[in-house]
Design brief:
This protein is an alpha/beta fold and 334 residues long. The chain folds into two domains: 127 residues, ATPase, nucleotide binding domain (Nucleotidyltransferase, domain 5, 2-Layer Sandwich), CATH 3.30.420; 152 residues, Hexokinase, domain 1. Helix content is 35%, strand content 23%. It has a six-stranded mixed sheet with strand order 9-14-13-10-11-12. Strands 3-2-1-4-8 form a five-stranded mixed sheet, sandwiched between helices. A hairpin with a 3-residue loop joins strand 10 and strand 11. Helix 5 crosses helix 8 and helix 7 crosses helix 8. The chain is globular.
C-alpha cells in the first residue's frame, strides 16, 4: 500500500497526517498537530512525526502559508524555506509537491461532505461551475476550484492583497483614516485577524460606541487583540463597540467576497474558510455579510444565484493537501 504524507504548514502550527494514497476517503491513518515555535524547520517536525510510527510515506504534499515558486516555498510568517528536492532526499521520498495553502483549501472542496459545511445562502449549485474560496484567518486567503469530468484545477491566489474599495461613506472615512497611517490599503489589512484590531481602533476613534472598562482591561498587554474583540462581540453581555467592529468586518468581507464571486462567475458556489467565521456561527448574524455580498448594482440577481457555504472542517487545508497529492501522484507516478 502506497502512503502519502500530507502537511498543512502555517505560521503558528503544522498539521501532519498519513493517508492511503490509493483510497478515496479522507480518514488519515495517523494525524498530529505540532506548534512551529521551538523548531528550526519543517524537516524537524516531520522527523518527529515519522519517528512515532512504523510506516513511512512514499510521497508527500505540503500546503504552505506562503508563496510557492520553482519547487520552493517560503513561509510568510516564519524564516523557513522549503524545497521539494531537499525534502525528497531527506526523507527518501519518490515525490514531493509544495502547494499554496489556499490551493490546498480549494482542492478540499471536492471531498467535503454536508457535515463539513454550513449553508449561508441557499441556491442551486452549477455542478460544473467555478467555486470561489475566501478565507479570513491570520491573513485573507482567496482561491478557486474548477472541476469537471475531465478537469481538476484548484488554485490559490494573493487576491487578499488587492486594494480596498470603500462602498459607502463610513468605509470611505475608514480608507482616509488608514491612509494617514499606511498606504496602500489592502483587504487583508481589514478582513483578517490582523485587521480586526484596526477596525476596532477606527470605530473607537470615530466614537461610534464607548470602550468598556472590561474590554480595555482585557486588551491591555495582550499581543493578539482579535480574540478579545470577537469574544466581546459574541458574549452573553456583548460589548457594543466590539459588535460594531465585527459588523464592519463582515460588511467589508461580504463586499470583497462578492467581488471575487463576480470575477470568477462562481455559480459553483462561494466557500468561506479560515478560523474567524466559524466562531460567529449561532452567536452573531451574517446579515451585513450577505447584504454586502449581494449589493452589486445590475448583478444583484446573479449574486442571489450563488450558493454560499461556510467550511466547518478545521483540518480542511490538510485534507486538501491529501486530495491534491493523491490526484497528482496517481497521475505522474503510474
Amino acid at each position: 500500500m502506497k502512503t502519502l504524507l500530507a502537511v498543512d504548514v502555517g505560521g503558528t502550527k503544522a498539521e501532519l497526517a498519513l493517508y492511503n494514497l490509493e483510497s478515496t476517503d479522507l480518514e488519515p491513518r495517523r494525524q498530529r498537530v505540532v506548534p512551529c515555535a521551538g523548531h528550526h524547520g519543517i524537516e524537524e517536525i516531520i522527523d518527529g512525526f515519522l519517528a512515532e510510527g512504523t510506516v513511512g510515506p512514499e510521497f508527500a504534499c505540503l500546503g504552505v502559508a506562503g508563496i510557492v515558486a520553482e519547487k520552493k516555498a517560503r513561509i510568510t510568517n516564519l524564516p523557513w524555506l522549503l524545497d521539494e528536492e531537499v525534502l525528497a532526499a531527506r526523507f527518501s521520498l519518490s515525490g514531493v509537491r509544495l502547494i499554496n495553502d489556499m490551493t490546498a483549501l480549494s482542492a478540499s472542496l471536492s471531498s467535503l461532505g454536508a457535515d463539513d459545511l454550513l449553508q449561508i445562502q441557499d441556491a442551486a449549485r452549477d455542478k460544473d461551475g467555478t467555486k470561489a474560496v475566501i478565507a479570513p484567518g491570520t491573513g485573507l486567503g482567496e482561491g478557486y476550484l474548477i472541476e469537471t469530468e475531465t478537469l481538476f484545477l484548484p488554485r490559490g491566489s494573493e487576491g487578499g492583497h488587492s486594494d480596498f474599495a470603500p462602498v459607502n461613506d463610513e468605509q470611505l472615512e475608514l480608507l482616509q483614516w488608514l491612509g494617514r497611517r499606511s498606504w496602500p490599503v489592502s483587504y487583508e489589512m481589514l478582513c483578517s485577524g490582523l485587521g480586526i484590531p484596526t477596525l476596532y481602533d477606527f470605530c473607537r476613534e470615530q466614537s461610534f460606541f464607548a470602550e468598556t472598562k472590561m474590554i480595555r482591561e482585557q486588551l491591555d498587554g495582550v499581543r493578539d487583540r482579535t480574540p478579545v474583540i470577537v469574544n466581546g462581540a459574541i458574549s452573553r453581555e456583548p460589548c457594543p463597540l466590539c459588535q460594531k467592529t465585527v459588523e464592519l468586518f463582515l460588511s467589508i468581507l461580504g463586499s470583497e467576497a462578492g467581488n471575487l464571486a463576480l470575477k470568477l462567475y462562481a455559480l459553483g458556489g462561494l466557500y468561506i474558510g479560515g478560523g474567524i467565521m466559524p466562531r460567529l456561527v449561532g452567536k452573531f448574524p451574517f446579515t451585513s455579510f450577505l447584504e454586502a455580498f449581494g449589493r452589486k448594482e445590475k448583478m444583484e440577481h446573479l449574486m442571489a444565484r450563488i450558493p454560499i457555504n461556510l467550511i466547518r472542517r478545521p483540518d480542511a487545508v490538510l485534507c486538501g493537501a491529501a486530495v491534491f497529492g493523491r490526484r497528482y501522484f496517481h497521475l505522474f507516478s503510474g
